[in-house]
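Progress report, Aim 2. The chain analyzed during this reporting quarter is listed below.
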Amino acid sequence: MKTYYFKSFMLVALLMAATIVVAQSVARQFVITLPHATDTAKLHVFLPERVKATGRAVLDCPGGGYSHLSMQNEGTDWAEFFCQRGDVLAVLQYRMPKGDHDVPLSDAKDAMRILRDSAAQWGINPYDIGVMGFSAGGHLASTLSTLAEWDVRPNFSILFYPVITMEKKGQHEGSCRNLLGKQRDNEELIKTFSTHRQVRRHLTPQAIILLANDDTGVPPVANGIAYYTAMRNADNPCALYVYPKGGHGFGIKKSFPYHQQMMTDLSTWLDQLKALKQEAVRVACIGNSITDGSGIDMAETRGYPAQLQRLLGDGYHVKNFGVGARTLLNKGDHPYMQELAWRDALAFNPNVVIIKLGTNDSKTDNWKYKEDFASDYQMMIDSLKALPAKPRIFLACPIKAFQDRWTITDKVITEEVAPIIYKVAADNQLEVIDFHNTITETAMMVSDGIHPNDKGAALMAKKAEEAIRSTPPAPTKKTKKSKKRYDRRKI
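Predicted structure tokens for the chain:
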């Protein structure tokens, strides 16, 4: 995540804002007009007392079918709850789309930028900013969570009886009509804004979904439960609470039969939501399905990056940017550098990078472009070297292929792919993590012989931890001889 700076327009708005105590736990309230919108788009900010501040902030998107906003029950009435906890609440008074689907999302992005730009002034941890949405506001919140770029994507989502699908079966007709307008039959837009179709493994933030079983306004199965299903299928952390009755739009109303239980459920979930420290060392794990955790159930907690996080502790922030089937080769069948995960990895501005690519490159149809492998690797390394953090970069030798499958063969990995990796590392004075000799038993692999199981992932995590904790070698003067320091006997 990039360093955020307090923009001048923000400072002026803050100085001009009146301080209003609206509830016992709200120290200050002020309103900011969004910079790229008309004066109808505003952010209502509620700051807790400094002594209570947790560093967490929540961007609240009230519902209203994209035709109006429920600003109190689903907005400002939540200020006491969050400020009592020590959290900042920012209620977004977003513009109605009137058929222009970009309008609400544009306002939500601006609001997220304001929160991150103002982090230092408002006592916010920029890695602990979530979004909360109700009904159509839940759709906006889930859109921000799935379609937004890294710098404005929230760290977690709270979705109350959310509109999720734009598909005819199960859609909330009014929200769909107001958001998409004359394009509501456009199949591409329907897919894009049906946010359960846009959930991305490791990249979509964890969520809690709260709804009532008897909601006839926004059918739960096609909406909130569909989003939960997509999150669970992607192994992304997600909680689902379905209350027996209460209908649609209960918000914070005490008349909701399960109001107290709902507030307790939400509080408990928030209490368990641990944010990483701002000063943590950022570690980006870049790779294919082996990094992604394919074959490991709940890879978000059992894959090698997750296990590496536990080994390193809270002084580090390890992020999984693995994507299945991806190649380093830009002429490969699925080039990694064309992925959202690659853009996210760069935006993460890591201090440490582990690149584990090459397994899929060894496939027959990909390795015919092997002459480009070193230059494409250099392109990736150059992009990482250009980052402000100037990361320590590790190149990983691919793990052993215990079976020939999908035209992946260990012979190609050992005799052709790995030597190039070692040479590229030597040319750039980078360190190599030898994953190839880390896993030596089939008991550490899933049945396909290509992917490690959770035990194999544990070995990879340990190897990576040792590398990260080791003292970096002193730079040496490049010579022609130094360019050939790889040794095939190592692999």
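The radius of gyration is 24 Å. The mean pLDDT is 92. These observations will guide the mutagenesis work planned for the next reporting period.
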